[in-house]
Amino acid sequence: MSNGASILTFMIISFSLALILIMKKDSLPANVKRPLAILALVMVSFSFVLMIFSFFSGAK
């Protein structure tokens, strides 16, 4: 798998996790909500960093 495909896969997974957490926020137990939300926030933030990095590194 190429580097671009790995970045794209990570982005899809992180945005999917965030979307699932938003859609199922009422059915999650209270002690699980905060760690999953923090994990999703970190993953989405890192995927934005990877997206910006790939834009700048691809424009040679």
TrEMBL record:
The keyword Transmembrane applies. The chain crosses the membrane at residues 6-23, 35-56. Keywords: Membrane, Transmembrane, Transmembrane helix. The keyword Membrane applies. It comes from the Bacteria. This is Signal transduction histidine kinase. It comes from Paenibacillus tyrfis.
